[in-house]
Amino acid sequence: MNLRTLTDRYSVAAQLTTDDIAEAARNGFRAIVCTRPEGEQAGQPSAAEMEKAAIAAGMTFEAIPFQSGMLPSVTDIERMKVVLGGVDGPVLGYCRSGNRAAMLWAFAQVGVMPESEILAVGRRIGIDFSPVSVAPPESVAAADKAPDAAPGSAPGRRFDVVVIGGGAGGLSAAAGLLRRRPGLSVAIVEPSSDHFYQPGWTLVGGGVFTAKQTCRAEARLIPGGAEWIRTRVERILPDENRVVVADGGALSYSVLIVAAGIVLNWGGIPGLEEALGRNGVTSNYRYDLAPYTWQLVQGLSRGTALFTQPPMPIKCAGAPQKALYLSCDEWRRRGVLDSISVGFDTCTPALFGVPAFVPALMNYIRDYGVDLHLGSRLVAVDGARRVATFEREGGAVKVEREYDMLHVVPPQVAPAFVRDSGIADDSGFVAVNPATLQHNTYKNIYALGDIAGTGNAKTAAAARKQAPVVALNVLATLAGKNPVYAYDGYGGCPLTVERGKIVLAEFGYGGKLMPTLPKWILDGTKPTRLAWFLKKDVMPRLYWEMLKGHEFMVKPEKLAS
C-alpha cells in the first residue's frame, strides 16, 4: 500500500484491497473514503466488500464516487466535509490512482484552508489542485456564503429522476435506483441538514435511547451519484414535468418520485404549540421533545398522566400507545403506578386497527389500570391551568381534565404543495395505485412513504418494502414499459408494551397478517423478548442500511400477468 500524505489527518492511495483495509487500521486510520465508481475496472473490489472489511477492522467507510476526469459534485463535497469533520482520527481516501480522492479533499478544504496552502499540498504530492481556484463547483462558494441556499437549483436543470424528500422513503428509493442503474442523473430535494431515525424516538421517551443516537447528517446519507438540492419544494407542475423550488428555480424530470412525508399540524389543537416543552406537555413525535417525555416520566410520582391519539391518518399509529406503555412500565418499576391516574384518549373506534393484536394490548391496558376512552379527541390545551379538553360521543360531549403530564400526538396532513399540485386524492395525499405506487393519472410520477395515498400503515417498515418496488417500476417507466412489481401493503409496528417486551404487529392491506418470522420463532400477537431485541438492536441497523439501498429481507413480487 503506497500512501501519499496530504496532512496528518488525510492520506490517499491507489486502489485498495480488503487486506489493505486491515493494514490501514493497524496504521491508525479511522475511516476509509472510496471515490471510485463501481465496476470501473474488471476485478475491482466492490464498495460493499470494502465497507464490510472496514467495519470488521473497526473503521467507518464512505463511498463518494465520481467519474475520472470530472470534478466532484456539490453533494460529493458536502459529504466529504462531513467525513473529515466527524471522524476522530486520520482518514484514508482511495480511487484508481488516488488522484480523485486527493481532489475531493482539496475542494472540501475551500474556505477551511487558504487557497495557497491547498495548492502547495498539491504540488508536494504531484497533483494539480488549480481547479479549486479556476472553476470551483458552485456549492464551494455557495456553502460558505449562504448555507441555506439551494446549490445547483438554477432554472432549467434536468434530471432523469427527481426525488422529493430525503427521508426514509426518498433515500431508499434513490439508492435502490442508483445501485441498479449507476449512470442515472438523480436529484434529491431535501431542505434539512439532519436526518432522524424517528422510530427511535419512542425509546428516547422511554429512557432507552438518547436523542443523539437517532440523528445523522443528511449529507452523509445522500447516495453516491445523486445530487442533493438543499431547498424545499414550492410547487409540482405535473403537466410540465417540472418541480419549482424555493429560490424560484425549476427542476425538470423524466420521472418524479414523491416521498415528502407527512406534516405534523401542531396548530390544529388550540393552545398546544404554546404549551409544548413546558407545563407538563410533551410528544415523542418531535426530536427535541422526546427527552422531555422521559424527564416528565422520571419526575412524576403521583397525579394524572394523559396520553392522546388524533384521527387517522398518522405516521406509526402504534406510537401514541407505545409512549403510554413505556411510561406505565417505568412507574410500575418504581412502585408509584398506583398513585398515578393514567388515561388514554384515542379518536379511533378500537385500540388497534388489526383485531388480532388487540387482546394482548388490552391485557396491558387492564394491568396498568389505564382509563381508556375510544372515540375521544383532544381539542384544546390550556398549559397555564394544566387542563386538556376532549370531545367525545361524536362531539356531543366536552370533557375537561386536569393533568400533571400530557403526551400529545398532533393531527397530521399532507404537505400543502402536494395538496395543491393536482396529483393528490381527496385526502390530500398522492393518488397512486396501491400495488404499483404509480400515479393514477400521471404515469411518470410515483409516491412512497407517508405521503402515498395508500391504505397501509405509515411506518418506516412500509417504506422499506415500498422502495424497491418504486425503484424497479421507475426503471421500467424510463424504459417506456409498464410497472412490473407490486407492493402488498406490508407495514410493521413494534408495540413496546413494556421495557423488554414487544407485540410485533406486521400486517398488509386489509389487515392481513404478514409475519416475517414463523410463528414458532416469534408470535407477533403476543409480547416477546425477541421482538424487543429486534426493535432495540436490529431494526436501527436495518434502517441505516436500507438508506444505502440494501434490501434485506425484501423481495418484490411481480404483478400478476
UniProtKB/TrEMBL annotation:
Coiled coil: none annotated. GO terms for molecular function: FAD binding; hydrolase activity; quinone binding; sulfide:quinone oxidoreductase activity. The keyword Oxidoreductase applies. InterPro entries: BLH_phosphatase-like, FAD/NAD-bd_sf, FAD/NAD-binding_dom, Prot-tyrosine_phosphatase-like, Sulphide_quinone_reductase. Residues 159-279 form the FAD/NAD(P)-binding domain. One of its GO terms (biological process) is sulfide oxidation, using sulfide:quinone oxidoreductase. Residues 3-111 form the Beta-lactamase hydrolase-like protein phosphatase-like domain. Keywords: FAD, Flavoprotein, Oxidoreductase, Quinone, Transit peptide. Its cofactor is FAD. It comes from the Bacteria. Transmembrane segments: none annotated. This is Uncharacterized protein. It comes from Acetobacter oeni.
